[in-house]
Amino acid sequence: LIKEGLGGGLGWSLETDEFRGNCYGDKYPLLAHISKKLNGPVVRPTINPNIRPTVGPKPTGKPTGPVRR
């Protein structure tokens, strides 16, 4: 696509990609390869186990409108 100067491409049959990661160890190897060739290497986010998710304030008071059921 890049070499030919095309503006886009079409993947016809992506259901044969490995969506569970059982065969190659990584999920989506076909899509990852296409992405790597077009956009560069896939950078996987790292998760810091020391950071806890933030929690918003607890609601106060009563509902202002009727309760829908």
UniProtKB/TrEMBL annotation:
Residues 53-69 have a biased composition (Low complexity). Gene3D superfamilies: Glycosidases. PROSITE patterns: GH18_2 (PS51910). InterPro entries: Glyco_hydro18_cat. It comes from the Eukaryota. One of its GO terms (biological process) is carbohydrate metabolic process. Residues 1-41 form the GH18 domain. Residues 42-69 are annotated as: Disordered. It comes from Parasteatoda tepidariorum. This is Chitotriosidase-1.
